[in-house]
Amino acid sequence: MTVIVGLARKGRVHLGADSAGVSGLQLTVRRDAKTFRNGPYVMGFTTSFRMGQLLQHAFQPPHPSGDLHKHMVTTWTDALRTCLKDAGWARKESDQEQGGTFLVGVAGRLFTIYSDYQVGEAADGYDAVGCGDELALGALHATAHLGLAPRARLTAALAAATHHSAGVIGPYTYASTPKRS
User: Exposed, middle or buried: residue 94 (CB in 10 Å: 0-12, 13-18, 19+)?
Assistant: First the structure.
C-alpha cells in the first residue's frame, strides 16, 4: 500500500513517494525513503521494503549502454534477477519467477518494472505504481499542461492519492536522476 509517482522532463527523471508502511489495517510512517539514487538511476519502490533495501544497497545496476530499452529488458533485468535471488527475496511460483513493482529512471526515460520483470515505458512520460496509482495518474494528467515544475506536479499527485487512499500518507520523499553535463 503506497504510491510512487514519476515523470520524465527535460532529460531528467523525477520521482516522489509517500511514507506508508502498511500491513493489513496497521499503518506505520516509515523513516526510510522509498525513492533513492543508485548510480545514474533513480528508483522508487512498492511491494516490499526489503526489496527496496536490496535495490538501494545490494543491487549494482549495469551502466546503461546502446539501445536503452533493450538494455533495461536484458542486461539490467538479468542483474536485478540475480540480486534478488542471491538475497533470497525473489519468488518462484508455477516455474515463473516473480520480483516486485517499482519505477526506474535513467537517461531521461522513465520505466516501470512489474512483478514478472516486464519493463514498461508509458508514452505520456509519467507513471505511478502502488494502491494510489490511479489517483496519482489522474493528477499527473490534469497538471500536464499547467507549466508546473516537476516537484509541484509530483506533490499534487501524491496529495491526491493521500486525500483519497487509506494506504497513502506523507511525508513525501523525492529523488531525481543527476543533471546531465
Answer: exposed
What is the reported pLDDT for 57? 97
Q: CB within 8 A of 10, min separation 6: which ones?
A: 108
Q: Do residues 123 and 112 touch, judged by C-beta distance below 8 A?
A: no
Count, residues in the chain: 181
Q: What angle do CA 115, 40, 65 make, to 5 degrees?
A: 85
CB atoms closer than 10 angstroms to residue 151: 13
The whole-model pTM stands at 0.94
Say what percent of the chain tops pLDDT 70: 99
Angle, vertex CA 56, rays to CA 71 and CA 15, nearest 5: 75
Residue-wise pLDDT for 28-45, tens only, equals: 999 999 999 999 999 999
Encode 9-36: b = buried (16+ Cβ within 10 Å), e = exposed. Answer: eeebbbbbbbbbbbeeeebeebeebbbb
- Asked if residue 7 lies in contact with residue 140, where contact means CB atoms within 8 angstroms, the answer is yes
